[in-house]
Amino acid sequence: MLGALVALASCIGVGTNTPEKHPDLKWTNGGSSVSGSIVVDSNWRWTHIKGETKNCYDGNLWSDKYCPDAATCGKNCVLEGADYSGTYGVTTSGDAATLKFVTHGQYSTNVGSRLYLLKDEKTYQMFNLVGKEFTFTVDVSNLPCGLNGALYFVQMDSDGGMAKYPDNQAGAKYGTGYCDAQCPTDLKFINGIPNSDGWKPQKNDKNSGNGKYGSCCSEMDIWEANSMATAYTPHVCDKLEQTRCSGSACGQNGGGDRFSSSCDPDGCDFNSWRMGNKTFWGPGLIVDTKKPVQVVTQFVGSGGSVTEIKRKYVQGGKVIDNSMTNIAAMSKQYNSVSDEFCQAQKKAFGDNDSFTKHGGFRQLGATLSKGHVLVLSLWDDHDVNMLWLDSVYPTNSNKPGADRGPCKTSSGVPSDVESQNADSTVKYSDIRFGAIDSTYSK
């Protein structure tokens, strides 16, 4: 009993200053309308002293006074409820969610957001994508170079980790439990306790830092895009659950080699521009980013097995198949993602095939069948300015695969986009989930 009391004393609790009211968001499952809602990630939330308004975390630093160590920090500090529109620039209407890039609130300036689809007040909606189709409509017309409107799935726990980690008293209701294939160490809370030990502020981001631990899990990037470039990318991890890492086991984020973690950081991406078609995605092109577009992603397979990920777009009443590859070093053309495509792409570009190393589609099927949480986000990139998505990266490279989009290599600097494109938005709407070829008009 004493152990339980100690754990409870060091847990991260919740505040009472702002009621947590999740914005409603309707979506469609198998043709039936579902009344869901969304919740903002705990990393964005105000963290303060229990019963007071003094900050536990301010700027990119934990308080030395209130957070000398993680246990004391958890005892002292609470997560606060969210003002979604006023603080985070997030609004919903019916089946649509709009995310604003920079929001100047009463007490702070917020940049970007990360949100999750909820089944109920305390539980994330879980999706098993195997043999299914996931469809949504997106408007990226107001997303310039350097921004990323990302919609993706990660293998988070459905309750945000409350059952697995007794120290977590906030759970899914307050957006806890995040993980992805980059094993991020910038998370303020991992496994229910503050990640304050060893915390170091990031030199190039006044709002972020990195702690001793990271949080790893498999990730399916359905959508990473702005008006100039887009990609969809599966990433897999060796373990089929959220796992805390430290040091080089977190890969590059933990100070190790990029490929030293138990996850595949690069993934196997299909970016039409990078794969040789520069007239497919963009303003006025085949898929015209000046207008909303319906995005259809099909996970071909059954049971715990996925063999192929297909992509279609619907715009102006027309179904547009994904572009074909046009890479000289690839002897065959592809317009979908599979083990065969991934291995051919990695070989042609001379890239590290960590996707195959960590199990490829065999592992992808295994993780997807466990159920994943849907993430809606908008962000800028303080590491490499989003050049990996929409420009030439590495910037001094002329090897195949380095040319990823039409944006200048000088674009995407966070201080520039945050000041010049503060009013940028992405709008996600009409989320649909069901049998393959059932969620869009053919």
From TrEMBL:
It catalyses: Hydrolysis of (1->4)-beta-D-glucosidic linkages in cellulose and cellotetraose, releasing cellobiose from the non-reducing ends of the chains. GO terms for molecular function: cellulose 1,4-beta-cellobiosidase activity. Residues 397-423 are annotated as: Disordered. Gene3D superfamilies: Glycoside hydrolase, family 7, domain. It is an enzyme of class 3 (hydrolase). The keyword tRNA processing does not apply. It holds the Pfam family Glyco_hydro_7. Its EC number is 3.2.1.91. InterPro entries: ConA-like_dom_sf, Glyco_hydro_7, Glyco_hydro_7_sf. Residues 1-16 form the signal peptide. Residues 408-423 have a biased composition (Polar residues). One of its GO terms (biological process) is cellulose catabolic process. Keywords: Carbohydrate metabolism, Cellulose degradation, Glycosidase, Hydrolase, Polysaccharide degradation, Signal. Belongs to the glycosyl hydrolase 7 (cellulase C) family. This is cellulose 1,4-beta-cellobiosidase (non-reducing end). It comes from uncultured symbiotic protist of Neotermes koshunensis.
